[in-house]
Amino acid sequence: MTAPLVLDAQIHVWKASTPARPWPADAIEPQRPEPLEVPEVRAEMARAGVCGALLLGPTWEGSRNDYVLGSAAADPSRFGAICRWATGDPAQAERLADWRGIAGMRAIRMSLNRGDVAGTLAAARGSGFFAAAERYGVPLSVYAPGRHDLYRDLAREYPGLRIAVDHAAVETSDRPLAEAVAPLARLAAYANIAVKASALPCFLDLGAEGPPYPSITEAVYRLVEAFGADRVFFGSDLSRLPVPYGDLVDVFVHHLPELDGDERALVCGRALAAWLRWTEPLERLDATGTGVQARRG
């Protein structure tokens, strides 16, 4: 069968630390010893039948955007960039007025899973960052696992600000996945919140469950029931994915039988493209007149 357009909502890419391009001195350990660079990502996507992906520089590389922006600008129908930003700097908040002129940029990432989260939020409010992102239409991609009230408060305070909940706000595999995503349902009332169903295999007991990973199917059903298919986005977090990429894609393409064709197409990629106003992958698909060939695992 012909698969829907598949867009991956998050893949970290980075380069090795070198004297010309050093990592921060206090960098955390990377998710794997060798860098994940764009040529490898392209090959993985081709094998799995993925048409496009959002690229994000990891925290251990520092607040760098050069590699992801360069890759997205060079191939905007295949890659978009989620950027790091100095959210506590008023001057950088004002720079958002011109963000659409930054080739390849699709969103800004806030990592709120460690460190002084309250301080980071206070600084972003004080600098005018959230207000500017709302005013200028900059989508945010926020990872704040377990902090459901944080998402609620931001959605209420900035109702025009588009906020994607990264990795379904989950961080560990200490409880069943469907149970872990259930608290998100109370955020569905806020139309400016969407959920990235990304990195989900990282939160499974893989010793007890193999492909096609029915726990992922159940979790996606719960999210779609709450948010609608237009606010749930497939994603992998490929650099730390503990299962074959193609197996995860196969779950979304072939193992969501309770979703109709339109819903499946939205979750697999069209909803993400609409949320970000990322038209290039759709234009490429329309120009060729063909989808990608589905892979059955």
UniProtKB/TrEMBL annotation:
It comes from the Bacteria. GO terms for molecular function: hydrolase activity. Residues 8-269 form the Amidohydrolase-related domain. Pfam families: Amidohydro_2. This is Amidohydrolase-related domain-containing protein. It comes from Pseudofrankia asymbiotica.
